[in-house]
Amino acid sequence: MTLVACIGGGQLGRMLGLAGLPLGIDFRFLDPSSTAPASAVGELVVGAFDNLAALERLAVGADVVTYEFENVAVVSAERLDALPPARALELGQDRFIEKKLFSRLGIPSARFGSLADTGLPAIVKSRRLGYDGKGQRRVDALEEMGEHELAEEFVAFDRELSILGVRGHDGDTRFWPVAENTHRDGILRVSRAPAPDAPQAEAEVLLGRLLDEFRYVGVLALELFDAGGKLLANEFAPRVHNTGHWTIEGAVTSQFENHLRAILGLPLGATDPIGPSVMINLIGAAPPVDELLRLPGAHVHLYGKEPRRARKIGHVTLVDALEETVVEAITVVERASDG
Ligand code: AMP
């Protein structure tokens, strides 16, 4: 029996479980909520992420410990020998340190630092614990910044892209096709992959530098701005990622399965696309499931979460679909969503 323990029992944990069950992998999750989405696919330890006793219980007998979100305490990840390596977690938790790492590795990013460094307009973000655009604001006039804030040049990008890669213990590395991502109110709405005219080779070089730097094991995501054909790194996430959900049906091997293969020392699977894919997030509220299933070829994923404003409660993926079906799917989802 192989047992994977995962810090966090949200939808990413649930989809890791769904990918691992056919491979004979058992799962245990740690989550503060007794109704965590991943409890459907494995044992659940209910406890706070910083509760040492709960972390011990999570890890007992596990072959490997992983995590599904990046705000895990670095000391806990280290103590449990978690994969991906704790250093990736540590450097990604502080946007200032993350940006400095980008520049050390020659990964272009927006100017950053104080408002004097960036000029105006700028985006001011909290250095730590920001997600889905929370804790950030656009700034058009000089103002006092908080001690725990970081300014970034406002990038007038043409589009947002992301690339996901996976690296095994032996250094074997694979990349999925670059995805083009649409956000609204800081929340991802739609990912399309492969992105049209994607700068695939360039994006692979940038992500490859991070994978090598960390001697990474598992899936790593890098979010990018495409500004006039120039790629600027926004942030990385040391975990499976929302912009890779299309890989479940749209790639030979999904991000979830390859993450498990990597952390368990198993051979990695091919990352080739099966066809052009579109993934649409269900935010806040979902349409009735039959409205989604009526769309030809729709793959519906519901996470078992209570609908709540701005909350990701599921997604739909279409592979190789007609553009009119894609438009219809987006319309059906948007009609139900809460803004
Ligand atoms: P983040 O939390 O850093 O991923 O930012 C969330 C979203 O805010 C991004 O996906 C972009 O749409 C936008 N954003 C973040 N940083 C910048 C920037 N420096 N310039 C313009 N837009 C940004």
What can you see in these coordinates?
- With 339 residues, the chain is of the alpha+beta class.
- It folds into 3 domains: 2-82, Rossmann fold, CATH 3.40.50.20; 111-153, no CATH class; 159-336, D-amino Acid Aminotransferase, Chain A, domain 1, CATH 3.30.470.
- It is built from 11 helices and 17 strands.
- The strands form 3 sheets. Strands 9, 10, 11, 12, 13, 14, 15, 16 and 17 form a 9-stranded antiparallel β-sheet that branches. The chain has a 4-stranded parallel β-sheet with strand order 3-2-1-4, with helices on both faces.
- α1 crosses α9.
- The N and C termini lie far apart (45 Å).
- The model has no long low-confidence stretch (mean pLDDT 96).
- Adenosine monophosphate is lined by residues 110, 123, 130, 133, 152-155, 160, 183, 186, 223, 234-235.
